[in-house]
Design a protein that fits this description.
3-stranded antiparallel beta sheet; 191 residues; 3 strands; mainly alpha
């Protein structure tokens, strides 16, 4: 049968007849995006960038019924701010501390921690959930920026500089004490 004849024959098939042709997506959605709420463009980009890096464990749901996210062996459930009695930013300050200067901290470890928080935040946004995760997420991004800056690694994205992220951390600090805010401000100078 010639191709034009085959195409004509296919178009003449009744519309109720469905051909079983599997659809294969070029890129699957990130495993952690479980909701249908549209994501802001920046969050969508981050989620898509993390799709090939972050895996999910659906048997564990540590935050707002979202699957546990794992990056480089770091599980969000093992560093979940909600498992603490501390305020989210106080938890982050205590849990994600660096030596002074921060150049000797593990950039890989801090990046993997940040990846789990970024993916959880994207998931929370996808379900329209509470964004209390923002304070520890911004603090982790701040710590990554401090480590990079301390090592002399150029940060080309103005939104990822120590100065910019300090503002984001303070803006999303919630009801933490001035002592906590002062300590974070001090860390911004410890490079």
């Amino acid at each position: 049968m010639h191709i034009p004849t085959l195409l004509t024959a296919l178009t003449l098939l009744p519309s109720s007849l469905s051909l079983s042709i599997p659809f294969i997506s070029r890129r699957q959605s990130p495993c952690f995006i479980i909701g249908s709420t549209p994501l802001p463009a920046e969050t969508l980009k981050i989620a898509n960038d993390l799709a090939s890096t972050v895996t999910c464990d659906v048997s564990v749901r540590p935050l707002q019924n979202i699957p546990d996210t794992i990056s480089g062996g770091v599980k969000f459930s093992s560093i979940n701010f909600e498992n603490s009695d501390l305020l989210p930013l106080d938890f982050a300050l205590t849990t994600f501390s660096t030596p002074s200067p921060p150049s000797s901290a593990s950039l890989t470890l801090f990046t993997n921690r940040l990846n789990t928080y970024l993916s959880q935040e994207a998931a929370v946004r996808s379900i329209g959930g509470s964004l209390s995760i923002k304070a520890p997420k911004f603090f982790l991004a701040f710590q990554v920026a401090r480590i990079k800056t301390s090592r002399g690694i150029a940060i080309t994205d103005p939104g990822q500089t120590v100065e910019h992220l300090l503002e984001k951390v303070i803006k999303n600090a919630g009801r933490v004490s001035q002592v906590t805010k002062d300590e974070i401000t001090r860390l911004a100078k410890d490079l």
